[in-house]
Amino acid sequence: MIYRFNHFELNTQNYQLIKSGNQVAVEPQVFDLLKYLIANRNRLVSREEIFDEIWSGRIVSDTSLSNHIKSARKVIGDNGRSQSCIKTVHGRGYQFIASTDEIINHGSDLASLPVDDSIGRSENRGPLIVVLPFQNMSSDPEQKYFAEGMSEDITTELSRFTDLQVIARHTAFQFTSASLDINKIAEKLSVEYLVEGSVRRTQDRIRINAQLIDASSGNHIWAEKYDRPLDQIFKIQDEITETIVSTISGQIRNIETDRANSRGTDNLSAYDHLLRGLSYHKNGYVSYDNYVKAFEEFTRAIELDPKFARARAWILCAEASMWRPKSDRRINDALEAAKYALKLDEKESETHRILGSLYLYQRNYQLSGHHYHEAMRLSPNDAHIAVKTGRYYAYIDKYDEALRTVERAMRLNPLHPGWYWMELGIVYYSMGEYQKAIDAYYKNWELEAYDLALIAATYIAMNEIDRAEEAAQKALVIEPKSSANLYTQFETYQDKEKHKLLCDRMTAAGIPA
Length: 513
What we know:
The protein has 513 residues and is α+β, with helices and mostly antiparallel strands. It has helices at residues 28-39, 47-54, 62-75, 144-158, 169-172, 182-189, 233-249, 254-260, 268-281, 288-304, 309-322, 328-344, 349-361, 365-378, 383-395, 399-412, 419-431, 434-441, 449-461, 465-478, 484-487, 496-509, and strands spanning 2-5, 8-11, 16-19, 22-24, 45-46, 86-89, 93-96, 100-103, 128-131, 135-136, 165-166, 193-201, 205-214, 220-229.
């Protein structure tokens, strides 16, 4: 659930408080207090009720409650004098009085996912594991990117092992062991195992605590502390990954171990800039400038290590996000850059995924399929690779494969971003299942002009003209200079008639050709 009030959004699924597009730091108990007051805003909440709900009946002083109320007011721009959001009724309790809208966050609603239990487990029946974001224990809060980068890397390496199923980073990073009970996380994600930890980085040393937890019992299966020179970080990551895999599956196949240990650089500074870039890139949806900063960080990583294939792959992702619009020249330049990155490291799955996309833009379906399949082989549990591969299958009319692959991606990343629903909608549209396509499209809570143009075309296919024109007009309000040819430029159906039909449907809805 998302609650909107004033300039704020409080997201109860990913435990975030957002103000005007920027995340606001808030203590876990203060967040829980805000959430409870907002959810019960239609009535007065007594102090005793708050003690029972937030502190589970533990003995807490009135002063502690008053301090938490004060902190809650502070983070939302309220105060005890104006009481514009949180009203105090002396001797009785509190009530949230700001005008509030409720929005169901479909992308974070696990109940809205496909219900076929065979999806995601039919090919790989290994245990399901989630790596929670490691806590930053350094004195410098800016080191958060480094701690999160550590957990993201461990997730990436674990996703390479076919003996495991790994929850995607996007979902995992919506939880922290500090803000939510481990048992609740395990229940929410239906995982068998959880990995949590912390990172403390100094100038020349790093201290890492890591634990592997059995979700069914809550017991620690394995825990380890590492206190090493900073330049041993890659070795520590490998030790953690191998220990987790060997502890759960009982064996590590040599071919997979070799694959997982291929990290692409021994240059710690280059790796540091890569992690900084990834931190910016994953927040690109918040601000376009984050893509620019990510590009700069990846560029610096390559300058420090020109053979760092992983950085070269991600700089292509950042650059593609900055393109306004794409062009054949840019596609060709990116293709040459991706080929060079693959020469540096043929086992980098992200490079294969990018090459698959670039060849698909050029309608070279044979090479596109080859690279998508290689990406899936190298990282069989990478949700991002899976969802993009699903779209490829839709374009070549392999609908069963397309549907299975996209739905599997959604299970690996159950709290996925909204655009996953668009990928599923495109599969259904390609199949001629137009109502299912519409249902999927509207589960995306981040609709952009391009998405609305697809919705308009789908309504035309359903002969619902009024709704088609309404969606088209909304698209034109967002991007007045857009066109059907621009929107469909990279809808690369192997059947050219399907491409033409999509373009014609958009123009029929009112989008200029």
